[in-house]
Amino acid sequence: MARQPLDVRPVPVPEALAATIRDRIFSGDIPPGTRLPEHDLVAQYGLARPTVREALQQLVHQGVLQRRPNHSATVPELTPEAVADIFFVRVPLELHTVRCLVERGTDVPAAREAVKGLQALPADAHWSAVVDADFAFHQALLAAVGSPRLSRMHASLEGEIRLCIAQLRPAWHTPGALAEEHRQVLEGILAGSVEAAEARMREHLEKAVRDLTGQARERDRAA
Questions:
Q1: What is the pTM of this model?
Q2: Within 13 Å of residue 112, how many CA atoms lie on the same side as its CB?
Q3: For residue range 56-76, what is the model confidence (pLDDT) as tens digits?
Q4: Quick one: which of 10, 120, 150, 208 has the fewest CB in 10 Å?
Q5: Confidence of residue 171 (pLDDT cuts 50, 70, 90)
Q6: pLDDT higher than 70, residue 157
Q7: What SS3 string covers the chain?
Q8: CB under 8 Å to 190, separation ≥6 — which residues?
């Protein structure tokens, strides 16, 4: 079996391995439903089993992988119920965010830059880069509110939100399609209307729910 490249940065090896696997999942290189036995990863990356186990545990904790006792870790296939529950928590947080930004008249330069960054990505961009750019937009809005607790609540969903974005790739086709949705949300905020800002954010998130649940149902019918 060919050795896989490892994303080596000045971080502990388990963290570097977790980042590498996470990037492959978000890019679609490791598709939903894939099992990741420890011994396979040991052979692919040439690392000790405890190191691999720690990296997998990090990803399980982040919601990027699932693991039952005495079973290999697996990339989740998001069910309609799981999607609904993720967004049941996410939607109120993000609606509160745009409401606060409009009511305070808060400038959001980082969000504008995030939209530009997403627009600049080529149509064939590595999808993990799209996942990063999407999350950067929402993260910029949250950070502009200035509430550490709000940011921490949203961060607790980060792995599952990124997994949603990764699995939405067939619905958006190109980074530009996603950038356009973000641009409309940003315009709603900058227009100074709470109603417009909330409506555009709600539309953006509800479209993601519809697309994700539709894909899950098609996958179930094909199984």
A1: 0.80
A2: 7
A3: 999 999 989 999 988 999 999
A4: 10
A5: low
A6: yes
A7: CCCCCCCCCCCCHHHHHHHHHHHHHHCCCCCCCCEECHHHHHHHHCCCHHHHHHHHHHHHHCCCCECCCCCCEECCCCCHHHHHHHHHHHHHHHHHHHHHHHHHCCCCHHHHHHHHHHHHCCCCCCHHHHHHHHHHHHHHHHHHHCCHHHHHHHHCCHHHHHHHHHHCHHHHCCHHHHHHHHHHHHHHHHCCCHHHHHHHHHHHHHHHHHHHHHHHHHHHHHC
A8: 108
Q: Scanning the structure block, which residue is given the tokens 């709600």?
A: 202
Q: Which domains does the chain have, with CATH numbers?
A: 13-74 (1.10.10.10), 80-222 (1.20.120.530)
Q: Which amino acid is at 108?
A: V
Determine the pLDDT at residue 112: 95
Residue 1 reports pLDDT greater than 60: no
Structure token pair of residue 96: 């509160």
The DSSP bridge partners found for residue 66 are: 74
